[in-house]
Amino acid sequence: MKILVPVKRVIDYNVKPRVKSDGSGVDLANVKMSMNPFDEIAVEEALRLKEAGKAEEVIAVSIGPAKAQETLRTALAMGADRAILVETDEAVEPLAVAKILKAIAADEEPGIVMLGKQAIDDDSNQTGQMLAALMERPQGTFASKVEIDGDGVSVTREVDGGLETVKLTLPAIVTTDLRLNEPRYASLPNIMKAKKKPLDTKTPADYGVDVAPRLTTTNVSEPPVRQAGEIVEDVDALVAKLKALGAI
Ligand code: AMP
C-alpha cells in the first residue's frame, strides 16, 4: 500500500504574522516558512505505518511555489520515499488543491491519503473533506489514532464530546489532529540522503486543473490589542470589581 501525504509550506508557527498596511493579506517578505505542523504529524504517521509493515511507500506532495521543494525535502529527510511538487505561484485554494490531489491519487492509487486537519495559514479545514467527496471515498477526520485493520483502517476521531472510532474501507482519506503523534526530527545524515531522493516537478495544467482563485479576500486585519490586566489587593476587591463590571 502507498500512502500519499500532502504537505503545505506555510508561515512558521513561531512567527507572529504581520498584516500588510493596505489590509490585503499577510506580509510574507523575509518570513520563516516551514511545513504545516499538522502535515508533519501526517508524515510521521505514514512513516510509522510503513515501519510497522502496513505500507510500502510514502509519497509527499506539495502544491505551491518552487520553494515548496524545501518542505518536500523535509518530508524526505523525515523518511518519505519520494516527492511530487506541483509548482505554481498562485495562492491555491482548497478546492483546487483537492482536485490536483484527486488526479495524483488516480495516478498513484494510494491506500490512504493522509492530510493535516488544517493549514495554519488559511485555517480552512476543507481540503481533506473536499478530496473525500471528489474521490467518493470514506473519510476519517481529526484522527488521534490510526490503525490498519484488515481491509480497512480504524480512525479514532477527536470530537466535541470525546472520542469516536470509525472504520473505513480502503482507499480512504485521513486527516490528522494534534495528539496523533509527536513528529520525529530529521537527522543530519537523513537530511543529506534526502537530497538524492526522487522529486518530480509538475504543474497544475499537467493534471488539467485551473487554480485561478474563486474567492476574493476583502480585508485582513490584526486581532484587537488585549487590554492590560489589573492586580487587586484581595478577594473582596476582586468581587467588588467584578460586580462593578456586571460580571457577577
Ligand atoms: P486546509 O483545508 O487548507 O486547512 O488544509 C488541510 C490540509 O490539506 C493541509 O494540512 C495539507 O495536508 C493539505 N493541503 C492544503 N493545501 C495544500 C498545498 N498547497 N499543498 C499540499 N497540501 C496541501
Automatic annotation (TrEMBL):
Transmembrane segments: none annotated. Gene3D superfamilies: HUPs. It comes from the Bacteria. The keyword Electron transport applies. One of its GO terms (biological process) is carboxylic acid catabolic process. SUPFAM superfamilies: Adenine nucleotide alpha hydrolases-like. PANTHER family: ELECTRON TRANSFER FLAVOPROTEIN BETA-SUBUNIT, ELECTRON TRANSFER FLAVOPROTEIN SUBUNIT BETA. This is Electron transfer flavoprotein subunit beta. It comes from Aurantiacibacter zhengii.
